[in-house]
Amino acid sequence: MSKALKLGTTAFSAILAILGIVFTVLAIPEDIEAAVDNKILPPFESLMANLALIDSYALVAFCALFAIGAGIYALITNFKKNSKVLIGIFGLLALVGIGWVLANGSIPAEGTTMGDKWRELEVTEGISRFAGMASYLSYFFLGIAIFSIIYFEVKNVFK
Fold this sequence. Notes:
mainly alpha
């Protein structure tokens, strides 16, 4: 991958991520507790907050697709040099698969406060399982990040 493509990919992804954060921050009222207590704003159901979160999710998805697309483009243009991209893609798919297997998709029993709320929100087993998979992926990535930081710090000590 050329330096210009790497720089462009990184800069574009960073700009989109910053825009997602800005959308989310601008949509949250300054005194959210007072707004909820005065029944001005229902908790987590504000139209602006929902729109900002949807925009943020779309921007994050676009960043991921852009980064993956840049990697695939680099792989196609110089397969021998960039074959490590396939290792990363298969590693990501493996983590998604492990997260999917570990997520059980259970829904709380009917008659409980949480179970009734989930049914009111029309949460299905599939949605619950997908959310569980996403949680496991977050834990995996956090663990990988912490391990990488520790590994490279220890490696630098013994240089």
